[in-house]
Amino acid sequence: MDYQKTKFVLDRYHLNKYIIRGTAKREEYREKIWKAINEGDKKV
């Protein structure tokens, strides 16, 4: 398969799922992560 023109997209549902998994019991980091994502440059 040729993936050169493929654009992978992570939807917000799955992004949130992995943020929760990655922060485990450290809920205080979730807000900081979301803030960084929402304020970041979305262009690749």
From TrEMBL:
For this chain, the family text in UniProt reads:
Belongs to the UPF0236 family.
Q: Name it.
A: Uncharacterized protein
